[in-house]
Specification:
By secondary structure, the chain is an alpha+beta fold. It is 21% helix and 29% strand.
Length: 253
Amino acid sequence: MRNFAMIIQYDGTNYSGWQIQPNSITVQQKIEKALFKIFNQTVKIIGSGRTDSGVHANGQVANFRIDSDIKLTLDQLHKALNHNLPQDIRINKVVEVDYDFHSRFSAKFREYKYYLSTKQNVFNRKYEYYCKYPMNIDLLFESAKIFQIRADFTTYSKKNPDLINPTCNIIKCEWNEIQDNRYELTIVSNHFLYGMVRSVVGAMIEISRNRLSSQKVIENIAEKNRDLNSKLSDSKGLFLHKIYFGEKYPQFN
């Protein structure tokens, strides 16, 4: 049996997230449909992260194992996948990996980007959150430091019955101004809880609007109580940017 991994880019606007679910169109569903057309058999893929409805990806990673006699080269498989996918989903790279590689469990860190603007731009409207309210950008930038910690992030997440470990080690969380009135958050952690990045961004936006204090956020994290969660920020500003697998898998670095 052989194991293949894909680096995937997608526009999440028209999808109900990554993971297959009843009566919804998802990114995973589209890719598995393409694989069925290529191999004439059901092929299940494993994603490194389960992005929510409307969330985008620059560097999602997914793998699949298959025991058929594959006569396609990696280049041919890459082209066949993209040929059978809609234009808002692209496979950027296909590599063959060790059998024990698992897109979710082999990942060391995940990096998300979030884009926020204080000025409307018609060309970015699907890929950033426009905040129409006055914001203190200094407070926004300062608030990111609160979340660069190792902690139980139950408060700033949505309920997930499959959750095993609510503790996340966030090694980077910082905002940068990338254009006039346009800001980019980079946040990196060993893993993220369901809805966590949007919850954290929502809290930072509330701080920047003087609707929530930094001290209160620190207290809320310690409470581990979802009733204290902030309003989630808009999904369209969020991108799964990169998955880090460490030195064992240099093809993803």
